[in-house]
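Justification of computing resources. Each target in the renewal requires a structure prediction run like the one illustrated here; the chain below, 220 residues long, is used simply to show the kind of job we budget for.
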Amino acid sequence: MALTNEIFQSHALAAIVVLSIAHNEPDQTRDQISIWIKDMNLIYVKDYLISIQTNLEKHTSYSIALLTIYIATCLLYMYGSYTLKTSVMVPYIVCELVRLVVCAALLVTWLLVLKQNTMDIGLLIAASVVVGFGLLGQSYLWICNANLPIVINETEREEKLATIRKLEKMLESVRPGYPNLSMDDEYNERYRSNLFVVPRTKYNPGITGVDIRYTSSFLH
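Resulting structure tokens:
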């Protein structure tokens, strides 16, 4: 899991570098987008590219901020997996699901654009197979990442139960006469056994003015 997160972090860092270059060189980026719009049939993404071309700095800044947040969630997930803190792993699972959906939409759109701009059936089939297996692999990795907190919680629960059983066995070995009786239960048992013991007074005529007190139990 850590290796997968590091790979995704590398991709995010590479995207940040590309966006930073585009942000620092807006004129060249706008010219390249104009070439794409002019030379290719971008019926599905033409309006979006025009919007990026118009507000280039805004789009690049937002994209860099989102990628930075994504990298931070990756680091939190790695920290939570090493320290067994499942609460800090949830943001990465949510962000990874969003990233998976966005990647699926972008790849499907790219396949549609490729279909409009090429007549090579073999290229289309190969691209479709690569995209399909890529999305399938990323979905499997997301399922593994999402199940890791569940596995950690179950493992901790089993360890606690094992510790409780070990303590119970230690108590049984110390007090063999009370195999299933805890300290509180033993005290309560003694209290209940003395509940019906009441004091009674007996007069001894041989000793004037002296009362001898003894206890008698209703249970005997």
